[in-house]
Amino acid sequence: MNDFDFDTLAVRAGTTRSDFGEHSEALYLTSSFCFENAAEAAARFSGEEAGMVYARFTNPTVSMMQERLAALEGGEACVATSSGMSAILALVMGTMKAGEHVVASTGLFGATQQLLGNIMARFGIETTMVPATDVEAYRRAIRPETRLIFVETPSNPLTEVVDISAVAAVAREAGALFAVDNCFCTPALQRPLELGADIVVHSATKYLDGQGRVLGGAVVGAAPVVEEVFKFLRTAGPCISPFNAWVILKGLETLRIRMQAQSAAALELARWLEVLPGVARVHYPGLESHPQHALAMRQQRGSGGAIVSFDVEGGRERAWQVVDSTRMLSITANLGDTRTTITHPATTTHGRISAEARTAAGIGEGLLRVAVGLESVEDIKADLARGLHA
Length: 390
Fold this sequence. Notes:
It is built from 15 helices and 12 strands. The protein has helices spanning 6-12, 38-46, 60-73, 84-95, 110-119, 135-141, 164-174, 186-189, 223-236, 242-251, 255-274, 293-299, 315-325, 355-361, 377-388, and strands at 77-81, 101-105, 126-130, 146-152, 177-181, 199-203, 217-221, 279-283, 307-312, 330-331, 341-343, 367-371. Helix 1 (6-12) packs antiparallel against helix 3, helix 3 (60-73) runs parallel beside helix 10 (242-251) and helix 4 (84-95) crosses helix 9 (223-236). The longest helix has 20 residues, at 255-274. It is globular. The termini are far apart.
């Protein structure tokens, strides 16, 4: 189906039907699958024969979700996982070994920083953090043992934009894999594989589901790399449930429509915030004032995405006052929902990393992150204005 446009793939790619001929994708709730005989069971387990084996690593509903997301990203293969963080874990554990090295961008999600910087170090995999937008910094950080370059673009929460094509060139020179966390943009706005990345990672919990219902993650890329990730998942088991895969599969059908509407509202909100007294700075790639605005417009199909972060004057006390004054916005660290969410990153999403790391990443006490949903943008403004005008 690769000849079809994005919106058609979002609805039709990966669809398979049973003998019943169901129109909507079926949800297969089973822990295992039966075989006609012992020989077929042996062939399935050895991989000599294609087919379902055990739901930890094979399930028809999960397979449909994986095929559809791979089509949307332009990848050869996809493996779905239980969460976005388990996708990153599976990527690292499936493709790396002790003694190897990761180069990662600053401004990563707090849990990603913890995983790469602390947990993986216990298993002999060291990570060097470099400024997200400094291409030469990636090159300087390369070592003979560098196996992976990992970036998140736009970054969470400051929306720094990494030049994917330029960093991909650095990775190729070094013979390293290049992975991009595409959570903020999704393939509706940005397709990293087309720009030279080897791997795309998703927290499907966010925009791919789109309504804050279930957890999920995914790794998309060339078949040989994804196969290594799959081998880890098959044994270690951080797999997605069929129900969660089914929910995400249905969420993909409206992905572009939601991303376009939410991004348009985010741009309007960012422009409103930028001239508001008491707001020190707005971080949004769609604004001309954003340092990587031109790059974002090229790389993200002319869209700034749906995440707006901004610094308020007065530090934590003032930022918390804005959060606590809202009546409609959901005070939660999740994003990608149809409902607009607000959080204080320094004490939530990035609260477990050191104060020094937060300072290096530019995450101050006055920073707030708003993930714009599908409500009226005028109502979102009014809800924020209660605290900002206090």
